[in-house]
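Input record (one chain):
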Amino acid sequence: MNPGTSRPKIGPVTSIPKLLLMFALGGGIGFAAQNQAQGGTAAIPPVGANAQSTEDIVAVPDRPTFSNTAETVQTGVFEIEYGFELAHGHQNINGLLKFGLLKNLEIRFANNPCTRDGGIPGIGDSGAGFKFRFLEGKRSLPTMSVLYAWMIPTATTGPGTSGHFTGLLLSKDFGRHHLDFNEGIQWLSRDAGGFDHNYFTAIAYSHPITQKLGYSEELASFSHTSTAAATFTVMQSLTYVVYPRLMLDAGVYVAAKGDLPRATFFAGITYAVGDLYRRHKSPNH
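The corresponding structure, as predicted from the sequence alone:
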């Protein structure tokens, strides 16, 4: 899920040491989360970025967490993520389209095609940007990427939010345990001109339960702005690998702090549609 476009604007309140402590008390074995573990079970499939054949295509989901994996979509692969949220006074459908333009470069477009807040239906804001992986994880080093998103004010039920988000993404496997860490900053436009800003922090953890079923949990927060209070959420979810290109997720996130519904339930799907580059190659390639 993409900060600033696919979810309500929440934002990092707590310091990193406090986040780590709360995560440990909540039963986490490590930190971070996304559904990829090199050499792991099918519940969290490997995401080799160089795979080219149809059989080798593997989904690289950023769902179901607020945080994003540092891995990028495979070269030439077009991938879609869509899901919905249900909470008291809040419902939406949120989506993310991703394409592996180059080996380490993914371009993205996020939108909320349907929202309903306080009983008022409409369309949410959108976002466009990219993810660039500048370090591929090896041995003790994590995979590291930078993420940029331009927030586009397409909302029909309010003035919408325009601005920019940039963040640093880290992902690391420890055997069958997978960890993600995100730290970012948002610049949000003000009605009177100029920009306000806040910080995003997320730590997530995932682990396979069976060959196809996996578990994820996450702590995420945005700091306050001049017009919005800081928020802090705790998420738990299950993921299911139908096959490597198709993954399902469902879960709940609880607002421990901030002006959000107390509990929000969600479910979604990630599907790697296919290798668009390969379609134009000759049989000899």
